[in-house]
Amino acid sequence: MASVEIRGARKSFGSVEILHGVDIEVPDKSFTVLVGPSGCGKSTLLRMVAGLEEITAGEIAIGGRVVNGVPPKQRDIAMVFQNYALYPHMKVYDNMAFSLRLAKVDPARADELVRRAAEILNLNEFLDRYPRQLSGGQRQRVAMGRAIVRDPQVFLFDEPLSNLDAKLRVQMRTEIKELHQRLRSTSIYVTHDQIEAMTMADQIVVMREGHIEQRGAPLELYDRPVNTFVAGFIGSPAMNLIEGTVQVTNGQAKVVTGDGTTLPLAPGAGAPEGSHVHYGIRPEHWSLTDDGTGIPVDVNVVEPTGAEILVVCKLADREIQASFHERHDFAPGQRINLLPNLDVVHLFEREHGTRLS
Amino acid sequence: MAAIGETRPVDQVNFLARLNNNRNLLGLLFMLPAAAILLLFLTYPLGLGIWLGLTDVKVGRPGRFIGLENYAWLFEDHIFWLSVFNTFVYTTAASVIKFALGLWLALLLNRHIPFKAFIRAIVLLPFIVPTVLSALAFWWIYDSQDSVISWILIEAGLLDETIDFLGQPNNARASVIAANIWRGIPFVAITLLAGLQTIPASLYEAATIDGAGEWQRFRHITFPLLTPIIAVVMTFSVLFTFTDFQLIWVMTRGGPINATHLMATLSYQRAIIGGALGEGAAIATAMIPFLLAAILFSYFGLQRRKWQQGGRDD
Fold this sequence. Notes:
The structure holds two protein chains of two kinds. By secondary structure, chain A is an alpha+beta fold. Chain A contains eight helices and 20 strands. In chain A, the strands form four sheets. Chain A has a six-stranded mixed β-sheet, with helices on both faces. Chain A has a five-stranded antiparallel β-sheet with strand order 13-12-11-14-20. The longest helix of chain A is centred in the middle third of the chain and has 18 residues, at 166-183. Chain A is elongated. Chain A starts with a strand and ends in an 8-residue tail after the last strand. By secondary structure, chain B is mainly alpha-helical. Chain B folds into two domains: 1-52, no CATH class; 68-308, MetI-like (MetI-like fold), CATH 1.10.3720.10. Helix content of chain B is 73%, strand content 0%. Chain B is flat and about 70 Å long. The A-B interface holds A 50-52, 71-73, 77-79, 81, 83, 85-90, 98-99, 102-103, 130-135, 146, 150 and B 200, 202-203, 205-212, 216, 220-221, 224-225, 305-314.
């Protein structure tokens, strides 16, 4: 096992630079997730670690060894692809044994390794089948088995679950996490799905347009997003971001929206008078109130999921979302009063979207 | 009478309506024109050819049925056996080299090279030029006095006298094989290129990470995944080469001393030039078993391999 360090990595295709100097430290045995919208450069970065793409500038080190010029097979990494990339003409067994055969591992030893990996992944009964005869989830497991048998220093996952249906995706997510807890192998995992990132990662790296927006533990990103992009990207349903201006009366700051609605702030929340801000609050951080202190909003759509109830409401000419774990009988058009939990209100300055408090 | 007059149109409508609803009958009807063309232009000539091979018909004289006498005659004919030998040498040598060079060219064209589309178009050129035209060009290239190859070699000081390309039996064989290869490579190369492009790039990436070098990627990924296409291409290539006529007829007419006579050219010479239609037809018919063997090879080669099959339980 080994750590991975990415220092000032840049990547250009022709004159187009798509990674603008990225620094990431992936600690030994950790599970790091690169997450971001399509085209943010996360897959390219992963392929640079794998050696499938050249590094235009900067350095990538695996286990302390700079691997910029090192071909993939000498980097001691394994990769799981989005479309699995199983060899269609080889049986499951041969798919998994392929790298061992190329490395001229003793056949008896190779057999032992393949069977052990198959054991871990519950693939024993499928060893004699061709990839075509497997379901999506089974193929995904074979792809992981192929990675496991090599016992690499680093596992790389390139959106491995995006070809699976929703239910299987959740199941495989858990399987991959279990596998990591068992093998403790350093893993870098690319996804555009923030739920995958939140549930699996020790460390999340949020990327946008070739830059890193924020790096940290999942709950750290959830609790203290550094800007409106991360705030909106991490968490589902997304954080409400309401535009307004800071006003201070009697030393108590509050945010006033364009239509005059007042959004309260915690005492001592630091924001200069008159500054334009985004008032950020997550849907689950509203509570209902009847004592006249709440913000009046009109219910637009009610979406009960059983575990919780999501209400889309109209506030200051924009839609906001609120979710409740208790059951309520809301009706569209109904007026309700919402009270934000002031301890978890986020303030971002409006021009660049960076965090204020 | 009035009653009959009334019912008839109803019957007709019923028949048309029934026809419209009967997919089997309608399908059969739509296949009729194609079947007629196949019968008229394929089955009838083939049957006639086989029948002629069993008669002693000559040009301008109706023949009579003589059974297998033509074949018995050919069995003793060393020129016929020479043509069989030539056909096999020609087909084997040309097909093997066409396959090797065609695959190599396809692999080159599959890479990222500048002016890719333009180069691919050029590769197709020998396939586009009419065979007779390219045969004439080769005839001139192989000319015993004015050959451009001889001229270059002499100018370069590598040779003292011109090469007699088409005048010596083995030279002539090699020369016509070279011309056939030139003409056949584009078909092999372009078809294999199409096959190469169906192989997903991620398989090569996975193999690279698994530790495969360039040769191992070819051996373990490219070649096995290309085998279904190779089977098709090579069957067609063998069929075309085995029945080749134009190139030989324009360049050598089977000479010198029958050294380049293929079964097709010998059949033409005996039947049309020599007038022995029955004997010529017998030679042509003798090609059928070999062609059938090639088609059977293709049939089994074309069968989907186990890894291509879907389903979960087989």
